[in-house]
Amino acid sequence: MLVLLFGANKGYIYVRAEYPIAVKRFEVAINQAKEYGILGKNIWNTGFEFELEIRLGAGAFVCGEETALLESIEGRRGQPRVKPPYPANSGLWGKPTLINNVETFANVTKIILNGAQWYASIGTEKSKGTKVFALGGDVINVGLVEVPMGTTLREIVFDIGGGIPEGKEFKVAQTGGPSGGCIPKQYLDTPIDYESLASIGSMMGSGGLIVMDERKCMVNLAKFYLGFTVDESCGKCTPCRIGTKRMLELLERITKGQGKNGDIEKLEKLANMIKKASICGLGQTAPNPILSTIKYFREEYEAHIIKKECPAGECKALTKITINPELCKGCGICKKNCPVGAISGEPKKTHKIDSNICIKCGVCVSKCPFKAISK
Amino acid sequence: MINLTIDGKAVCVPEGTTILEAARRANITIPTLCFLKEINEVGDCRMCIVEVEGRKGFATSCIQKVEEGMVVRTNTKEVVEAKRMILDLILSNHQRDCLTCTRNGTCELQKLAMQFNVTQIEYQGAVKIKPIDDLSPSIVRDPNKCILCRRCTAVCKNVQKIGAIDVLERGYESCIGTVNNKSLAEVNCTFCGQCIEACPVGALKEKEMIEDVIEKLHDKDMHVFVQTAPAVRVALGEEFGMPIGTNVTGKMVSALKRIGFEKVFDTNTGADFTIMEEANEFVQRFTKNETLPMITSCSPGWVKYIEMNYPELLGHLSSCKSPHEMFGAILKSYYAEKEGIDPEKIYVVSIMPCIAKKFERQREELKNNGYYNVDAVLTTRELARMIQQYHIDFVDLEESTFDSPMGEATGAAAIFGTTGGVMEAALRTAYETITKEELKNVNFEDVRGEKGIKKATIDIQGNKVKVVVAHGLGNAQKVLEEIKSGNADYQFVEIMACPGGCVMGGGQPIKDAKTRATVDVRALRAGALYSIDEKSKIRKSHENPILKKIYKDYLGEPGGHKAHELLHTHYQKREKYQL
User: Fold this and answer.
1) Chain A partners of B93 at a C-beta cutoff of 8 Å?
2) Residues A91 and A12 in one domain
3) Is A80 in the same domain as A95?
4) pLDDT single digits (tens) B422-479
5) What is the predicted pLDDT for the residue at A44?
6) Domains delineated in chain B
7) Distance from CA of A3 to the nearest CA of B (A)
């Protein structure tokens, strides 16, 4: 992340200490720029002076929030400030501050070189230019991809990403990192831009794009992302500090089969309050994975709570592995492979799984040559 | 001026006013929890959120400023619902043993829960039980009741410039703690107790000694004497619903007698001794130009501060004990001899506006003949609780006077309880000691008032004596830095650890955030002390007839051998952190 005090003589590059290669490259670049005379005192004999300093972050996710980042640079706990005032009016050391992501500044160079017209010709009516996504998850080609704004999710996942491996079906794509929302398959043809993503309950966020296939449980997915935000909440404001923890606890109960009627409504109520009452973007977006999964996969939540089932078979506490006696040939392969000795049976006779011992690892399911074992 | 509407009411306020303040002008009290005017204005708790037309999300009314034409709504269904949920969340993570909590009835969280009709906790969840720190002689810190409003850390770090406590960990694990999670007894805490005054709940309180005192009161062999500090009498009434700044001296004395203290004495008499000794010490040092400026030493939080932070400047500190210690020393020597009581059988209780006095009481170097000068220190709040325990109807209580002969004091002693008071009292005596002439106008207005650092020059027979008065340790630090750098051109300094002096001490009745934002508590309490001074027949310590007698019969000269033995002490470098 890069901070530039515009019209001022001092700029900061804020980068996590965990990214030593990035830090090294910045150091090299700054030194080279100084040698060329485009950084430092009297740049190109104009009398203009500009210094760039690298500030290493200690790895807090919340320091990606602009005001928390400013606090961190000033040497305090990485905690956001209440806005307004915005950094443009009162930022670093209380001075007007221009603060942007590295991607934004990278675009600025291109715009300077090629002109605004050129840049505006790429993208949609409102979202101009290109966007870099970190494509990952259940997709054949993973990595960083840069696409014009307005490219559809289908193009990114199936054309660029090469589709879903193992012939599985696309279920959702999570965009915008841990506090984005999930996009189900009915929106595969939605053009990816700021407005469209917001309208379907997600966001551009960090540019993360994680593809998930049919085997992913949506309640578990929400729980996973919330676990991250609970860990990364700075703890400054009440809704985010305690609220996200309480949401996580609710999700944990649901995935363990301890959900109660009314839990979905409780989650929605709390999520909507946290979205509106939290100080910064972290808290305001933390409920997105929950709200979007409830919106598109409410029946999965209901299955967990009412039927005590996990339709995707991912929540171990709710899955039961059984052997179909009609298909079982009594070969004993499952018994041999079971790591906990939960399977018993005489050769050539139907085998049984003791559900009290079974840890639902699924090894037997994959090893059975007759597809007699299922979750 | 800015025009806006709040809940449909037109409000006109100066530019820079917060939405919260503007609402107050329209008789709308927006609830707050983390807000403490000028000390903690951060918007963390979210209890003050309001809707502002055209703005996404809620606005933070305690910090956000009014804008022309703004339309604010403080009580829409959504706002109220959100606040109730926030309260629910805070309560879900709070040890709710209200019935047995010291702050039952004065807790800001409890009040809000009642106001929002929170009758059950909807979002219950994990609550981590953390150890309670009760190792220090002054403060008990119960993190299980902490709601992370950070009012304590703000006053400690930003006002007192100590930073003994701060936020550790992050997210749900966040907690207020010390360096390496040590006890407050082992870190740079000065025991000023301003954190207790700031705490909206029961997470911080004084280390109680009520039970110890009651035990001794029932011990037939013991002579249990009590003395009360100047600032206690102008604040104690608040605990019984009386207006801030009511002088309840007479009722307080009656209550103490009813509780069963054998003698009820006035620490103000001790304050007169302090002035005699301190003024004398100053005159000596001033005339000899020896280690100037001399700094007062009656605020134990301040003494601990300089011992920890500026040991190289300890020579500047007056060697005088604080008033209640001097008085305790006199009680266990002169008074014991006069009354024929074995000092072993005397138990001296001090009622103080201060929690650092609990620490001071234990200092070994203050002992005389193997006895502590004072055996127990109770705060104003503890006394109020004790009065309640003894079924005393305080408000309608008859008035009594302190026991003589030790209970007579001057107006100079009364003002010890406020910033500038010690200086003023000392100047009255120093002036007459040096000039041998009567001081006509005893009021030194320049050293009064709320300004953090007050400077004045007093003409004593052509000698220009420059004095400085600082209150609050943040201000003390500035003065000390000046002295350290050699730029101090003054000769006499008064420092009190608490902003406002003893009237605003860490043992005084706790005022909620709204009261602190709307009422000048310091001015009211201090005003009551100045009024006692104004009405006193004798307003100079050296004219106190009791003192004259005791110096003549027992102590000898101020600063003399006997006086030195009983009324003076020494200081030492103190490690900030015990490893």
Assistant:
1) 242
2) yes
3) yes
4) 999 999 999 998 999 999 899 999 999 999 999 999 998 888 999 999 999 999 999 9
5) 85
6) 2-75 (3.10.20.740), 123-205 (3.30.70.20), 211-567 (3.40.50.1780)
7) 24
A77 in a structural domain: yes
**Is B432 a known active-site residue?**
no
ipTM: 0.92
Cis peptide before A85 (omega within 30 of 0): yes
* Cβ-nearest to A242 among B60, B82, B89: B89
What 3-state class would DSSP assign to A114?
helix
The string of DSSP letters for B529-543 reads HHHHHHH-S--SGGG
Phi and psi based region of residue B227 (left: phi greater than 0; alpha: psi -120 to 50; beta: remaining): beta
> A194 in a domain, yes or no?
yes
Residue pLDDT, tens place only, B269-293: 999 999 999 999 999 999 999 899 9
Give the CATH number, domain containing residue A145: 3.10.20.600
Q: Does residue A219 lie in a domain region?
A: no
The CA-atom distances, in angstroms, between B10 and each of A295, B4, B7, B58 are 41, 6, 9, 20
At residue A320, the pLDDT reads: 83
- Does A246 contact B167 at a Cβ distance shorter than 8 Å? no
Which amino acid belongs to residue B35? F
Whether residue A92 sits in one domain with residue A8: yes
Structure tokens at B393: 């109807």
pLDDT tens digits, residue range A15-39?
999 999 999 999 999 999 999 988 9
Residues A183 and A197 in one domain: yes
Same domain? A25 vs A96: yes
Residues in chain B, pLDDT under 50: none
- Are A30 and A9 in a shared domain? yes
Beta carbons of B86 and A231 less than 8 Å apart: no
User: Number of structural domains, chain A?
Assistant: 4
**Is B318 known to be catalytic?**
yes
Residue A6's pLDDT band (cuts 50, 70, 90) = low
Of B208, B360, B408, B424, catalytic: B360
Active-site residue flag, B182: no
**Please, are residues A98 and A5 in contact by the beta-carbon 8 Å criterion?**
yes
Is A86 found in the same domain as A38? yes
Q: Helix count (H) and strand count (E) of chain B? A: 20, 17
Q: The CATH number of the domain where A263 resides is what?
A: 1.20.1440.230
Quick one: pLDDT at residue A4?
Answer: 42
User: Cα distance from B170 to chain A (closest Cα, Å)?
Assistant: 5
* Alpha carbons B173 and B187: distance in angstroms, whole number: 22
Q: Is B48 on the interface with A (CB under 8 A)?
A: no
Residue B184's SS3 state is: helix
Domain end marker among A281, A298, A315: A315
Residue A2: which pLDDT band, with cuts at 50, 70 and 90? very low
CATH number at residue A334: 3.30.70.20
Instruction: Answer whether residue A375 shows pLDDT above 90.
Output: no
Give residues with Cβ within 8 angstroms of B413, minimum separation 6: B230, B266, B268, B269, B270, B271, B272, B275, B323, B425, B541, B544
Residue A49 lies inside a defined structural domain of this protein = yes
Q: Find all residues with CB under 8 Å of B169, minimum gap 6, and list them.
A: A235, B175
Question: Of the candidates A265, A281, A315, which is a domain's last residue?
Answer: A315
Domain assignment of residue A357, given as a range: 320-375
Q: What is the pLDDT of residues A303-315, one digit of tens each?
A: 999 999 999 989 9
Helix (H) / strand (E) containing A251:
helix A244-255
A51 pLDDT more than 50: yes
